Amino acid sequence: TRLIKTPEDDTSGILHPHFSHDGTLLTWTEMIEKPEFLKGFGNWVIKVADFSIQDGTPVLANIRQYQPGGKGFYENHGLSPDNRQLLFTSSFENTKAFHSNIYTYCLESGELKCLAKDKWNEHALYSPKGDRIVWMSGRENPNRGTDYWSMHPDGSGKARLTDFNNPQLSGYNKKMVVSADASFSPDGKYLVAYLQVDLVKQIGVTVLIELASDWKK
Fold it and tell me: 206, CA 20 to 30 Å: which among 69, 111, 153, 171?
């Protein structure tokens, strides 16, 4: 079932749709202006809609649009388990290529909060219980690769989860790895993750990562 129809040209596009944890809402990001030549990724907005099944057909209603920090690139990462906070990546505060930050935006109060900045930050997700956020970041990596990190929902308690790219750590892969999209198992013990191991040839692998028993500490 086609839920969203956008113009079939280079001025529009859809990224990262996610159901809310209770299945009543659908969120996604949508491009509303194409990029300027060799500059940025265009102008995007986050959309939130009520989701229901009516007479056997999926239906979106009451579509809301958000651009919390102004014009820029937005990548949707879904809602917190209580449906109050939008979690997303954006470049509206950054001018360097592949420099993006992780934010939350409270739908009730309108509070915008930056959780992770500097370097390349992307692909954030709440743990099943909503007590941690996992995201990928280039912090502390001298080779420009990215690893998975975790933090509290308010941005505190940041801790490295993987060590693919830092030669001073035991899991160093001896070549750049870009950690990309990931998803939790329902019990929160595993991440299934997509790793890009060659950006030029666009080669990637899907792996299962078993998290340490104390990874939330």
Answer: 153
